[in-house]
Amino acid sequence: MTEKTRLIQKDHGQQALAIHLVNAACLHDWANTLTAVQREILAAQKFEGKPNQTAILAHEDGWLAVGGVADPADLSSWCLARLAEVLPAGTYRLADRLPGAALFGWQCAQYVFALYKQDEKGQGPRILLTDDDDDLVNGLIAEAQATNFVRDLVNTPAQDMGPEALEAAARKIAQEAGADMRVTKGDALLREHPMVHAVGRAAAAGFAPRMLEIEWGDADAPRLAVVGKGVSFDSGGLDIKNSAGMALMKKDMGGAAHALALAALIMRHRLPVRLHCIVPAVENAISGNAFRPGDVLTSRAGKTVEITNTDAEGRLILADALALASEHRPDLIIDFATLTGAARVALGPDLPALMARRDETADAFLAAGRMHDDACWRLPLPGSYRDMLKSNIADLANSASGSFAGAITAGLFLDEFVAEDLDWVHLDTFAWRPSAKPGRPEGGAALGLRAAWRMLQQRYGR
């Protein structure tokens, strides 16, 4: 991952190239401040002040940059991202304003995943100077680092990001924060988290299943559980996916990446909570001992589950994780999971599907996402749909009997394993961007992470 902290530097009046921000409404007035030659050059570049347009003009002994934005007076997270992608390496400052929230996109736009490219040189850093408040700057640097952490983990192929590698990533985060970490695997995993064991038992020895737990914070603080689905690769199991369905399944641990990134933000900023981060880490592989359609599994909570589809495995491992979280009676549980294709059919790649028990919690989450350019969309949890998960031989089936409301029935399945009176939010996120946008390259993506973090800051008072 490209080092991000030095992309934003304190403005001490050092030499820098100016960036002017305009939109179509103010372009004419701004252009009148230019020389005739500069106006001709601007017109030659077909610059019209539209968002994400850029231009470069000769100016005195050097040059200046021009960026099109929706509203120069209200900068969003992504309005400087295109400039950060296309400008030459160098040091810049905005001509007549502070970048504020746009510092986030400036950093994310310069992300490069080059772990496997020997000839990846890049064009050098574009540094932005700012005199914004230090707390704001440091917070946006941390959020960009968390975003790029998710991107790194999701972009890494399953050969190098299996359950053991997820454990190493979690351990590094825990050690840096001085947190406690527990890893459960082998016979202990079979006893304590039987559905995690069942889903992961077919994997090769080096990719054995495990449950990862990080504990941090004052024992008297409100308890917060953050859970992430860590399926490092999903073949579909015996209900095997086709090749197109498997193509992106290295990203099926995207929920775990989000959970670990959020845990790191919580600990770095010392949010006054007792954090319990839980990641069930497995590979859904195929071998002679793989779990089968028709099997009945007993969960940590004691409920039995008939397996009607081995490709609906993420909800099985999350069920054990949510049951574990519930046992500690947290103030709030948040889980992240790349859970269903149905959520993507309903909402597309950009919007995580949010399901929650309490309206006030959902509203706070959605508001935080809107305010910080990380929108989510709420789906309901209607009790009338629980009948779709009925089984004739077990307490419930792991996959609905029909094709309707797939994201919702998955959420209802998870709801069965969260204690009835607990506050719980489920995010069915894609963790992937199929096509690039300014500041957001194709590949691994953090979707819902900033919304969750900002909601938690508001909820717990820091």
Automatic annotation (TrEMBL):
GO terms for molecular function: aminopeptidase activity. Signal peptide: none annotated. Pfam families: Peptidase_M17, Peptidase_M17_N_1. Residues 309-316 form the Cytosol aminopeptidase domain. The keyword Calcium does not apply. The keyword Manganese applies. Keywords: Aminopeptidase, Hydrolase, Manganese, Protease. Belongs to the peptidase M17 family. This is Leucyl aminopeptidase family protein. It comes from Croceicoccus esteveae. The lineage of its organism: Bacteria, Pseudomonadati, Pseudomonadota, Alphaproteobacteria, Sphingomonadales.
